[in-house]
Amino acid sequence: MEKIPVRHINTKVKEPDFLSSFKIRKVENLLSGEDMVQALHRHSFFYILLIEKGSGVHYIDFVEYPVTNFSIFFMRPGQVHKLTLDRGSVGYLMEFASDFYSPLEQSGIQILRKVSSKNYCQLDVARFSKLLFLLNYIFQEYSAREDKFQEVIKASLDIFFIELVRQSRNPQNSGGKGSQYMQDRLEELLELITFHVANHKQVSDYAQMLNLTAYQLNAITKSTLDKTCSELINEYIILEAKRYLLATGNQINQIAYHLGYEDVSYFIRFFKKHVGASPEIFRHNFK
Fold first, then answer.
1. N or C: which end of the chain has fewer CB within 10 A?
2. Mean pLDDT of all residues belonging to the chain
3. Parallel, antiparallel or unpaired: strands 6-7 and 41-43
4. Residue 49 near residue 36, CB atoms below 8 Å
C-alpha cells in the first residue's frame, strides 16, 4: 500500500530535538525570487501559512482557497494540500509537531481544536497586524535562541491561538454555554472519526467513545452543522478516499481495504453514490 507523500519538519542536517519539532521561516526567503509550486502531499505536523502580501492558489483537502493579502491558512496533521505561491509574496510559514506544542489543560486543547478546524481565514489589516506582531516576536526568539527561548515560543503560541480564535470566530456561533458544549463535543467527534473511521463506522461506536447516546450525538451534529453523525462519518471516508486516489497510485481495492472495506464492489458503489462518479473516473477527471 503506497502512502500519501508525507513531509516532516526534520531537515537533513542533524538538529537538536526542539528544532526538529518546530520551525518558522519567512516566506520571501523560501521563495528566493521564484514561484513556489508544490504537488499534492500531506504533513505530519501542524502548518500555518500567514500571508501579509501575496498571491496564488492553495488547495486544502480539495477545496480551493485564494492566496491574498492578509490571509491565514491552518492545516492539521494528515490533511493533504498543494500550493502555488507567486514570487514576491511576503509572510511567515510556521510548522510544529504535536510533541512540541501539546496543551495539557482542557482549555488549551479546545483552543487548538478550534483554530485547526478552520483551514482559511481572511482578515482586515488591523486584525491581521496583531497576529503578524506575534509571529514577528516568535521569529525573533527562534532566530536569537537565547535562554529559555523554547518556553517563550510556546507561551507566544498560546497567545497567537487565542487571538486567532477571536479574529476568526463567526459571531452567529457565539452562543451560550449549551452551544459551547455542543461545539466542544463536535470537535472531539471529528477528531475521533479521523483516528478510528477505518474500524468504526457506526454512530453508536462514537456515541460510546464520547459517553453519549446516539440520539444525543445526532442532536449535537444537527444543531452545530445541520448534519447527522452518519453524514459526517461518510464525508470523512470519502475525503480520505479522495486523498489516496489523487496523491498515490494505489489500486482501488488497496484503498478500499485501507478504509476498512473488504467488499471492494460495495466501496465503489458507496463512493459513486456520494461523489457521482466511480473512484477510477474521479481519479482520471481530477488529474
1. C
2. 90
3. parallel
4. no
Question: Using CA atoms, how far apart are residues 207 and 218, in angstroms rounded to an integer?
Answer: 9
Contacts of 61 (CB under 8 A, 6+ apart): 79, 80, 81, 119, 239, 242, 243
pLDDT tens string 186-234: 989 999 999 999 999 999 999 999 999 999 999 999 999 999 999 999 9
Maximal CA-CA distance, the chain: 59
CATH ID of 6-169, from 3.40.50.150, 3.40.50.11030, 2.60.120.280, 1.10.150.20 = 2.60.120.280
> What is the CB neighbour count within 10 angstroms for residue 21?
20
Tally the residues of the chain: 287
Instruction: Read off the amino acid at residue 138.
Output: I
Locate the domains of the chain by residue range: 6-169, 177-286
Q: Which three cell numbers stand for residue 108?
A: 488549551
Residues 231 and 36: their CA atoms lie apart, in Å, by 36
Counting Cβ atoms within 10 Å, is residue 284 exposed (0-12), middle (13-18) or buried (19+)? exposed
Domain 177-286 has CATH 1.10.10.60: yes
Sheet containing strand 120-122, strands side by side: 22-26, 90-96, 46-53, 71-75, 120-122
